[in-house]
Amino acid sequence: MTCRGVFVVAALSAGCAGPLANLTHRTGVQAGEARFLVASLPTAADDEARVRGGLARVTPALARWGGLPVPVTVQIAPTHEALERAVHRRGFEWLRAWAQYDELIIQAPGTWAGTDRDVDELVLHELTHCLLFQQSGSAKTWASKQIPLWFREGLATVTADQGRSFPSLEDLASWLERRPAVDVFGDSERLSREAYGHVYGLSFHAMRFLLRRLGDQAVTGTMVAMKAGLDFEAAFERATGGTAQQFQTDFLTFLKLRGFRGFGLKRGRPRGLVPGRP
Fold it and tell me: Rounded distance, CA 216 to CA 48, Å?
């Protein structure tokens, strides 16, 4: 997942050279039109194979949003500690990967993933971040677009179909009722550390709400407008006809009034969190 600090990571790639300098085995991968360079330890053949398999399986799903025009380097960190050191994050035990414009760092699947489905979900989630950044800007401009967490993580969790891993709409509504002072959108970066499941669940459901109302054009149009030079707020308004703040207010009202009950959406407790998913 792409956590807080996504817009101040200009030096991250250089910082990764130390912790991941031993990833000397490199393999080129072509999946449709998408191109990847997978870097791993020479002894990590199984992990490399699982990641390469995931890339091949999930890349077609990215066509919905335009695909990956720029090659992505995928680095397989051998341990969770190596991942945290590489991305300059501490204390995020659930973190399993980190994505930027043309780089994805993933913790070796053998240290956390039970099934290929686990790997596929994580890889698809992270590649969706890369796609969003590539379709919204250039290597020089993507980090300045100020794309909010709910849009970044909402798009990634919806694309990877991870809703079962997060609280339901009913659970979210109840959670927010118990915390009337929480600014869940405005303070989502900080909250993601202490209430990861709820913040990411809110992002997932907010994105579904947006797509239900306006369709895929709300996402693709926002990306096109950012690519043309606008920041997120202006691009979102151009693509949707309303401000991001208005949309957030509408979604929170939808939650508060339990508008989802009329949509026949299931209620219930979350079935556990997908490791790293982010």
Answer: 33
